[in-house]
Amino acid sequence: MSAPASQPDKMAAVPVLERMFRFQWEEAQQCYVLLYPEGMVRLNDSAGEILALVDGARSVARICSQLEQKFPAAGDLSGDILEFMEVALEQRWIHYRR
């Protein structure tokens, strides 16, 4: 796994799910979802795999490593995972532990 040179701080960051969201598998939808008071966000497979590892203890680098081990044929996933983390931050699904 290799992170883009401009991203070392983001790779060391530890993402945390925002308190207003609950991440879970939704049997009726057959996918992972984020539940919040006003509704639900249906996640695609990739987003679900990433958020399943967001536990407030794992760094982005560790999440990348674990997903690369789980999906070895995919190769380096760090760019895709960093891109997803940016979207998740913009959507306020996660924040980084301080």
Task: Give me the secondary-structure topology.
Elements: H1 8-12, E1 15-17, E2 22-26, E3 31-36, E4 39-42, H2 45-51, H3 60-70, H4 78-90, E5 94-96
Antiparallel strand pairs: 1-5, 2-3, 3-4
CATH homologous superfamily label: Coenzyme PQQ synthesis protein D (PqqD)
User: How many discrete structural domains?
Assistant: 1
**How much of the polypeptide forms β-strand, as a percent range?**
15-25%
Task: Using the coordinates shown, work out and report the CATH topology.
Answer: Arc Repressor Mutant, subunit A
User: What's the β-strand tally?
Assistant: 5
How far the N terminus sits from the C terminus, by CA atoms, comes to 24 Å
Name the overall outline: globular
Indicate the mean pLDDT: 92
* Percent in helix: 25-40%
Major sheet: size, sense and barrel closure? 3 strands, antiparallel
At CATH level 2, the architecture is Orthogonal Bundle
- Succession of helices and strands: HEEEEHHHE
pLDDT < 50 runs, ≥5 residues: 1-6
User: Which class in CATH terms?
Assistant: Mainly Alpha
Helix/strand-derived class?
A: alpha+beta
SS summary, helix count? 4
Widest sheet: strand order? 2-3-4
C-alpha Rg (nearest Å): 13 Å
